[in-house]
Amino acid sequence: MKKRKSALTLLEIMIVIFLITLITGAVGYNMKGSLDKGKIFRSRQAKEQLHDMLLLLLAEGTDPQALVSRPLDHIRQLNLAKNPDKLMVDGWGAPFQVQLTRDRKDFTITSVNSAKYE
Questions:
Q1: Does some domain include residue 39?
Q2: HSE-up of residue 53 (Cα within 13 Å, Cβ side)
Q3: Separation of alpha carbons 46 and 29, rounded Å
Q4: For residue 96, is it within any domain?
Q5: What does the radius of gyration of the chain's CA atoms come to, in whole angstroms?
Q6: Which domain holds residue 51?
Q7: What SS3 string covers 27-83?
Q8: Is residue 56 included in any domain, yes or no?
Q9: Which of 8, 50, 51, 70 is the most buried (most CB within 10 A)?
Q10: Could you tell me the pTM of the whole model?
Q11: CB distance 80 to 53 below 8 Å
């Protein structure tokens, strides 16, 4: 008896390629959600750190209006942030907007992208 070599047919190869594409698409779709969660987390952490540093500067007697108009300059002078430029942007790279509350004793920090997820 002779053994025949079995070769892959075109149909089998197409089925394998289809399955690989399907699995890759599902993984990619799920990964996108994870990336968005990471950006949301990074944005929240940066907002908290920025808020704490601004309150520290306010407690040290820095003019509140100067903090709102040039927060990055004051954060750099405080010298507590490892990378102040990165602290001033959300997870998507958009800058935070800093506003003073009505009582002038606190700050509201917002960004265009992270507002969608809060």
A1: yes
A2: 25
A3: 26
A4: yes
A5: 26
A6: 12-117
A7: HHHHHHHHHHHHHHHHHHHHHHHHHHHHHHHHHCCCCHHHHHHCHHHHHHHHCCCCC
A8: yes
A9: 50
A10: 0.72
A11: yes
Judge contact between 88 and 71, C-beta under 8 A: yes
What are the pLDDT tens digits along the chain (118 aa)?
566 666 778 888 999 999 999 999 988 888 877 888 889 999 999 999 999 999 999 999 989 999 899 999 999 998 888 899 999 999 899 999 999 998 888 999 998 887 777 6
The answer to whether 51 touches 109, Cβ cutoff 8 Å, is: yes
Q: Which residue do the tokens 């907002």 mark?
A: 47
Residue 76 lies in a domain: yes
Assigned token pair, 55: 């309150």
Number of domains in the chain: 1
